[in-house]
Amino acid sequence: MGYMNTAPIPSSADQPRWLSAEEQRVWRSYIEAATLLEDHLDRQLQRDAGMPHVYYGLLVKLAESPRRRLRMTELARYAKITRSRLSHAIARLEKNGWVRREDCPSDKRGQFAVLTDEGYAVLGQTAPGHVEAVRQAVFDRLTPEQQKSLGEIMRIVAEGLQPSEAGADLPWLR
């Protein structure tokens, strides 16, 4: 018996809704693809820029933000990581000279992460190789229709997982 059970057991209030064999196949394919894709992109960025994929995402978000700066809490929310993990990442990016922190004048406890000119240049040098890795790993393998379907599916999943209630227990709020 698999941990998600493929036996067609009727569900009830006290029984799990086990995945069908086809659902389990889809789920496992998704997990394998997501794990391999993240590893592929992480290795490419480590090789080309000496940074993990999550750090690249932080630099991109800062580059897209007005004045290349964003509140740390907003950056944690975007990256879906704890504030502690973000603080560690920003410290490493600061050490490289790619990001600096600035105090928030309206909130004594708040800070901004700011993409430096050096960080912006590193991002510009790294982006072509990264977009090529993404293109080869994902988009070159799919038809335009599959690309559209994948985008719609991932949007639906993301929207369904994004809590709307205030006070939700989310890692990036800790």
- Major β-sheet profile: 3 strands, antiparallel
Number of helices: 6
The helix-strand sequence is HHEHHEEHH
The averaged pLDDT comes out at 89
Give a verbal description of the structure:
With 174 residues, the protein is mainly alpha-helical. It has six helices and three strands. The chain has helices at 21-49, 53-64, 72-79, 83-95, 117-137, 144-161; strands at residues 69-71, 99-104, 107-115. The mean pLDDT is 89.
How are the SSEs ordered, and which strands pair?
Layout: H1 21-49, H2 53-64, E1 69-71, H3 72-79, H4 83-95, E2 99-104, E3 107-115, H5 117-137, H6 144-161
Antiparallel strand pairs: 1-3, 2-3
Short description:
The chain contains six helices and three strands.
Key words describing this protein structure:
single chain; mainly alpha; 58% helix
